[in-house]
Amino acid sequence: MTQELHIIGGGMAGSEAAWQAANAGISVVVHEMRPAVGTFAHQTGLLGEMVCSNSFRSDDHEQNAVGLLHWEMREAGGLIMRTADKHRLPAGGALAVDREPFAQSVTDALMAHPNVRVEYGEIRALPRDGHWIIATGPLTSSALGEAIAAETGAEALAFFDAIAPIVYHDSIDMSKAWMQSRYDKGETEEERTAYLNCPMDKVQYEAFIDALIAADKTEFHEGETAGYFDGCLPIEVMAERGRETLRFGPMKPVGLTNPHQPDVKPYAVVQLRRDNKLGTLYNIVGFQTKMKYGAQADVFKCIPGLEEARFARLGGIHRNTFLNAPTLLDGQMRLRSQPNIRFAGQITGVEGYVESAAMGMLAGQLAAAEIRGERLETPPDTTATGALITHISGGAEAKTFQPMNVNFGLFPPVEGLKGGRRGRKDRYKAYTDRGKGDWKAWLSGAMAPA
């Protein structure tokens, strides 16, 4: 059997897995089907391409589980976080990146690594020997998806994920909109003004909700079900769940003051976030949608400030697939029925760029250790990475398994701290302090010379 590590898929998980294994001295082959075989969501053949939001979400490593995951990946020398920091855009307390330079830098770094080579072409069947990581993400090709289903004896679960639209900045009416991060969050003026805000009064909000509900939507194919992941619900689905749902979600008006009308509190606010370094493109935050293209343009132009908006990309919807990981994968991320294959990233049932990259990071480290004839234990569930792998490898209930973002609900409680909202700040700090200490201890062993 070859001692090379083969990785199918060059997205967040596959790229990070390759980087970690290559830095451990392992020869890595990345198999990427793009651009020869495309997907509806990808625009390029670059590795690490971002197809939905350009945000890695909160970078607060003291009060947020996602921020702690960022911290852990930086400590592990992760390629994805290093590249994200290099191409960072102002986004308040979040980590957003200039997506095209980000993907180009990921590609360049892997292409330049002496232990990595990239082969382009589709892998259509499960390999029977060698060391493999499948990190094909939610847009796994039909052929490979069918091969996985045939091997596991069960259909891959599915949910629908939606893409938010992107607007040209110069088409936004800034006499109605303004720049401000919620609660003026951020250490610099640029961070404190990272979001573009479009206010609505009650009449405008009610008309917007009516338009959303009445708009033409993309229909599902026969046999498909609308099993959305709650963290990525289309806005029209949220509107159908209750007329106030959006006002307590992505359109919440709190922490913002309209400088055009400082004495008038908006009833609702639509936020846009910079999507590229030039500031020419802005994506509408939380506005994933399955409306048809013509309907999208009509509905979004009801938003004050976007009446003359021009769209660089309209929203879309696609079917995402993932494994019932607690049933199919062991604690080393290997397929129980064929342990020469590991899975990593979103196909394992984690949700989000950061979570996908973290599972790639871990899969690359585990595979590298195995190739060297060693066994690397997974990190403890007191860490963000450990909490995720524990969840997907058995911590979750298999019968109701759904994609999951990292969150403190996956962490074991800290003894002596009470629950509830009042003690939340101290509790979250205790989680991150404990997690950092445990991650450093685990990492010192994982990164120790062979």
TrEMBL record:
GO cellular component, one term: cytosol
Cofactors: FAD
Enzyme class: transferase
Keywords: Cytoplasm, FAD, Flavoprotein, Methyltransferase, NAD, NADP, Transferase, tRNA processing
EC numbers on record: 2.1.1.74
Primary localization: cytoplasm
Occurrences of domain MnmG N-terminal (ranges): 5-374
GO biological process terms on file: tRNA methylation; tRNA wobble uridine modification
UniProt superkingdom: Bacteria
Reactions this protein catalyses: uridine(54) in tRNA + (6R)-5,10-methylene-5,6,7,8-tetrahydrofolate + NADH + H(+) = 5-methyluridine(54) in tRNA + (6S)-5,6,7,8-tetrahydrofolate + NAD(+); uridine(54) in tRNA + (6R)-5,10-methylene-5,6,7,8-tetrahydrofolate + NADPH + H(+) = 5-methyluridine(54) in tRNA + (6S)-5,6,7,8-tetrahydrofolate + NADP(+)
Family: Belongs to the MnmG family. TrmFO subfamily.
Annotated PANTHER family: GLUCOSE INHIBITED DIVISION PROTEIN A (PTHR11806), METHYLENETETRAHYDROFOLATE--TRNA-(URACIL-5-)-METHYLTRANSFERASE TRMFO (PTHR11806:SF2)
Name the record gives this protein: Methylenetetrahydrofolate--tRNA-(uracil-5-)-methyltransferase TrmFO
Natural source organism: Roseobacter ponti
